[in-house]
Design brief:
668 residues; mainly beta; Maltoporin, Chain A; 27-stranded mixed sheet; 5-stranded mixed sheet; disordered N terminus
């Protein structure tokens, strides 16, 4: 069931092991595989939690589908990680959209998941069955999360061995020759555990092009992807545990036309040391090697016009958080984090008539951010107050863009100036508990996002539209305020939030001329709105609902003055979701989810309209024996037409009606 606040969960005994201490008394070592517990004042920032059942019970089996049940969550477009270009899978909150880069920080066990070059999220590599829960903080600023948490933070937590079971596997077949299969081994090793897992997805796909716009070169959006990971958790002392993970993934897709193929792949490694003793600490480090490739097909001759051969990028970073013992009523968080990203695109422009390479282009650079933060929570009876400060030292360097002819001779090369500076972010909040299950909260915050290497150095073409890069982009800065009320009694809860957020120097794709845009800093994007999250339970029934109303407006002058007062691109005014779940005896359940995405515009000038869409999804897990179960899933069961892209009448569609049938095996 969704939890409308972020109270820390008490450690479970699923992976506890008892030994004998020196005095003969039992010594219990509890290995959780998690980070430090949430601070008492975290709910002041309006957090929402999703439990494991909610993450799994989706019609599509995709994480982004689950996250859409959170009021305010959205991707750049309505397509999921089977039929969208991977580089367009940015995640944001509160209608602070406008481009494909994530304005929300997505963390998996504390590790940022965004691509170092583009800033998109590789959703196909994050397997819902391996997660134990998620927590979403809308707004809230950067704070101890790290730069990039501009619109908020989406924290994903891996499940432990006790939750997963020693052996688990599932396999499904779906419409249009779709196949999904995954397997997990999670044995306990001493007082720790290991999780080895793999997942494979493929499908012939559906036609994203409407029937009246199809040509002989039009093909379904076929896809094939796999991911594999190995995760280990082991205690080093009674209060300290070591966590390590290796993740590899590969995702291939075809969009609209034959030959319009994309590839995204990566190899990530991380290590984390968590101490739950008197002096609590969380120390982690990670390295990411990613790559992206893409072929662009002419929409008139249907031959290749651009081969983005490779975009190798590397992300390196780490974080240290320390919580000294300062009394039972105070939590003090001190720490530092660092992230460095470097990458370079290599692409060939191709003559659509002859097929010859006309020029070879490359561009890229490096950026880094070192953040220092301090945050304290203090409890005064029923009142909890919190305040924090964060200072970031950022660098943007080694930027270049080069053009060579087909033989390799340099036609032009531009080296961009190095930049660096300091940014300060603040946040503060209060949480007050009233009698009868009510709580009141209020918060103010600021946040920071550096422009991505893609925004700085890589122009791109989606024929006939050219979007230019901009090496002079400034950092985005958010200032926000919110207040809310929450009520909980038993299994019934409701949460209301009103907010006012403004992103200064927001990066947007600004129209300069017909078929020409450039990434520019506009004055601001301001969003004001209301978010409602509710849940209820009666015996074996559970219901959840969310509603977001957001009035988002652009404030722009100068060359972007034509945008002033308009809504940001890809920013709906209304979004809603409602789910009803029935739990069978044992592990079975049936879930139906109704989701509404409001009308929005494809472009910054509000000329290309995307109508509202309402879809119905379903998930059923029916026990057959103690270890086997039947899986049934349905996507867009009403067959709603979902328009995901509209560029001057050129349309892309979202997933049509899709049904899945499969089996589940697991041991306890």
């Amino acid at each position: 069931m969704a939890t409308l606040h972020a109270q820390a969960d008490a450690p479970t005994g699923g992976d506890a092991a008892a030994e004998s201490g020196d005095g003969g008394e039992p010594l219990v070592i509890v290995v959780t595989g998690r980070g430090l517990e949430e601070a008492p004042a975290s709910p002041a920032y309006g957090t929402v939690r999703l439990d494991r059942d909610e993450l799994i019970a989706t019609g599509s089996g995709r994480l982004e589908d689950t996250l859409a049940s959170i009021a305010g969550f959205q991707q750049f477009r309505r397509s999921d990680s089977r039929s969208a270009n991977p580089s367009a899978q940015g995640a944001t909150l509160r209608a602070l959209g406008g481009n494909a880069t994530s304005r929300a920080l997505v963390l998996l066990d504390g590790i940022p998941m965004s691509d170092p070059f583009f800033g998109y999220i590789p959703f196909s590599a994050i397997v819902p069955e391996l997660l134990g829960g998620a927590q979403v903080t809308r707004g809230g600023g950067s704070g101890p999360f790290g730069a990039g948490a501009l619109a908020g933070t989406i924290e994903l937590f891996s499940a432990d061995a006790g939750t997963l079971g020693p052996v688990a596997a599932r396999a499904l077949i779906g419409s249009r020759d779709a196949l999904e299969a995954s397997a997990t081994l999670a044995p306990r090793l001493g007082n720790g555990f290991v999780v080895a897992s793999a997942r494979y997805d493929s499908g012939a796909g559906f036609f994203t092009t409407p029937p009246e716009q199809r040509v002989p070169a039009s093909v379904p959006a076929g896809y094939e992807s796999w991911s594999a990971q190995l995760r280990g958790v082991a205690p080093l002392t009674r209060s300290t545990e070591l966590q390590a993970r290796v993740l590899a993934f590969r995702d291939q897709r075809t969009l609209r036309f034959a030959g319009a193929d994309s590839l995204s792949e990566g190899q990530d490694a991380s290590i984390r040391l968590v101490g739950q003793g008197r002096w609590q600490f969380d120390l982690l480090g990670y390295v990411q090697a990613r790559n992206f490739a893409n072929v662009v097909i002419s929409s008139t001759r249907f031959t290749p016009v651009l081969d983005q051969r490779a975009t190798p990028s590397t992300g390196v970073g780490g974080k240290l958080e320390v919580r000294p013992p300062v009394g039972t009523r105070t939590v003090l968080r001190l720490g530092a984090d660092y992230r460095m990203a470097q990458g370079e695109v290599a692409e060939d422009a191709i003559n659509a008539f002859s097929g010859a390479v006309t020029e070879r282009r490359s561009g890229g650079g490096r950026d880094g951010d070192l953040g220092l933060f301090a945050e304290g929570d203090r409890t005064f009876g029923e009142l909890v107050v919190t305040a924090g400060v964060r200072v970031d030292r950022f660098t943007i360097k080694d930027g270049f863009f080069e053009v060579r002819d087909a033989a390799g001779a340099v036609r032009s090369r531009e080296a961009f100036r190095d930049r660096s500076g300091w940014e300060t972010s603040l946040r503060a909040g209060a949480l007050y508990s009233l009698a009868g299950g009510w709580r009141l909260r209020a918060a103010a915050y600021s946040g920071l996002r550096l422009p991505t290497l893609n925004e700085l150095y890589r122009p791109f073409v989606v024929f006939p539209l050219t979007t230019l890069a901009n090496a002079d982009l400034r950092n985005e800065r958010l200032v926000g305020y919110e207040a809310g009320a929450e009520y909980r009694r038993g299994r019934h809860a409701v949460s209301f939030t009103v907010f006012d957020n403004e992103v200064e120097d927001a990066v947007a794709n600004v129209t300069l001329a017909t078929n020409l845009r450039q990434r520019r800093n506009i004055d601001a994007i301001r969003t004001r709105g209301v978010e409602v999250q509710a849940e209820a339970g009666w015996r074996d029934w559970e219901a959840e609902a969310s509603l977001a109303y957001t009035d988002a407006r652009v404030r722009a002058t100068g060359l972007a003055a034509s945008l002033d007062g308009k809504r940001p691109a890809q920013s709906p005014r209304w979004a809603a979701s409602a789910s009803l779940r029935y739990r069978f005896s044992g592990d079975g359940s049936l879930t139906a989810t109704l989701r509404h995405a409001g009308a929005q515009f494809e472009d910054d000038l509000e000329t290309d309209f995307l109508p509202a869409a309402t879809t119905l999804n379903a998930y059923a897990e029916v026990p057959i024996t103690g270890r086997f179960g039947l899986l049934l899933r349905g996507e867009n069961l009403t067959g709603e037409t979902v328009i995901t892209r509209n560029q001057e009448g050129s349309i892309d569609l979202g997933a049509p009606r899709t049904v899945w049938l499969g089996v589940l095996f697991r041991t306890r």
